[in-house]
Design goal:
mainly alpha
């Protein structure tokens, strides 16, 4: 469920919050941006850290019906999001803390598509993992070995 929370929070951040900054006046922008940045840590970054830790723990405590390759794909999507945040989004956000800059804001919105695409792929993978988990279908490869029957056939 944390996956869906983080997905929703990220989508709101990307499509509602970032785009609304376009309509904030230059005089108010820095204060609004800094206040929002402080809240995003509690309501989005912290849950994302927990989610990433849970994903890593699943490599050792994964339900057998969930294929390990799906877990790797999910982790890769999270990693892409973290790397994009660290090397693209956060540096731009730190500059925006100083005041409104239309070029930086445009770059923030455009480059955020890296995270959006990673998150959409991630949530599709999570839905597939939930499908395996709740359907009871074993996703592991089957074997063609057949046990001899006990009645001699």
């Amino acid at each position: 469920m944390l996956s869906f929370y983080c997905f929703g929070a990220g989508i709101i951040d990307s499509f509602a919050l970032y785009h609304s900054w376009l309509f904030v006046g230059a005089n108010e922008f820095a204060a609004i941006h800094q206040a929002g940045g402080q809240r995003i840590v509690l309501f989005f970054v912290f849950p994302m850290v927990i989610l990433t830790i849970i994903t890593i723990l699943l490599f050792w405590y994964r339900p057998q019906v969930i294929p390990k390759h799906l877990l790797w794909y999910a982790f890769a999507c999270q990693l892409i999001s973290w790397l994009s945040s660290a090397f693209i989004q956060i540096p731009i956000q730190l500059q925006l803390d100083q005041g409104k800059d239309e070029v930086l804001l445009s770059r923030l919105i455009t480059t955020d598509w890296i995270r959006i695409i990673a998150w959409v792929i991630y949530i599709v993978i999570v839905v597939q993992m939930f499908t395996f988990l709740f359907s009871g279908v074993d996703s592991r490869p089957t074997t063609f070995y057949r046990r001899p029957s006990t009645d001699g056939r």
